[in-house]
Amino acid sequence: MAKKIVAGNWKMNLVKDEAKALASEVVAQAKxxxxxxxxxxxxxxxxxxxxxxxxxGDAENVFLAAQNCYDKPSGAYTGEISAxxxxxxxxxxxxxxxxxxxxxxxESNEMLAAKxxxxxxxxxxxxxxxxxxxxxxxxGKQNEVVxxxxxxxxxxxxxxxxxxxxxxxxxxxxxxxxxxxxxxxxQDMHKEIRAMLTAKYGDAANDISILYxxxxxxxxxxxxxxxxxxxxxxxxxxxxxxxxxxxxxKSY
Length: 252
Ligand code: PEP
Description:
One of its GO terms (biological process) is glycerol catabolic process. Homodimer. InterPro entries: Aldolase_TIM, TIM_sf, TrioseP_Isoase_bac/euk, Triosephosphate_isomerase, Triosephosphate_isomerase_AS. Helices cover about 40% and strands about 15% of the residues. The protein is of the alpha/beta class. The chain has a single domain (about 5-250), classed as Alpha-Beta Barrel (TIM Barrel). The structure holds phosphoenolpyruvate. Phosphoenolpyruvate binds near residues 216 and 235.
């Protein structure tokens, strides 16, 4: 069975003291309130990784994610961060292929395949984002787009590695816009994605967590998570308020 996961994506928000305060609140509230079968993940900017790792300490159900990494192991790549460097700070998950990275930083499916490999080689778990833009949805091309993203970045993996990947379906038109996909639209796409994964990897696909992302908040998480193929959420804006983020983790 797929694990239930609620992952936060802080994006490029919060300075040091704010990040420490938010992480402390999330950990305290998650210890008291997040159901034990839910994995809670904070996806934080690189600069806050060491502090947040420290704050998470020995909390059993709270994990740490980075929001990107470079695919090369080391060397003359000024400004980049390798998977091995993230691992050395105790990072558990790495968000890859977020639509903002695809759009503003030109990350292609091919580049992302190399990043997926780097993350797995360093014993971390990728949270791999897929999703269509509005024009693609309006043209009915969402399945085609997502299928290409999955096959070009993930389907080279042997099944043992593929089982470590978390997928996040994030319709780009719903990210940060306040426009959520309906629970039905989310479940329909998640079911499609599950079928694509099953066609490639068979029953192993049933154990893959497929998260929904896009304006998910406490008031709609319950309905969205009710979908049979929705195993949790990737949360942007609402992950910046501890009470909202932890409330979402109770929305199954
Ligand atoms: C995201 O950036 O992954 C996201 C889902 O953002 P938001 O929840 O703010 O739409």
